[in-house]
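dude i think i finally got it to work??
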Amino acid sequence: MLSPIYHKIRTPMTVIKGSVDLMKTEMFGVLNAEQRELIELAEKGIETLLTQMDESLSQSMPKVDSHHMRRDSDRRTTRGHMLCKQEVIALRDLLNRLDL
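look at this
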């Protein structure tokens, strides 16, 4: 029951995390001390939220046999690969629009 909600929140959080990580590289300019502090605060908040979500989901998941887990793992790997690919394309488009 939590799984669909988890994924609806996890996907945008992954995008936010990627954006924060990208800003942290200073690719778009040098960060001042206040900006760096805000980036670090955002990182900690994102990690805390993702950890809490993972723990809540794992506690709510029923136990399943290993065969079912293997199939589910394969689906997650495929979805994860697709999500990563989409993020790379989105970031590439953003960098192209910014002429970087």
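The first helix runs from residue 2 to 24.
im so relieved honestly
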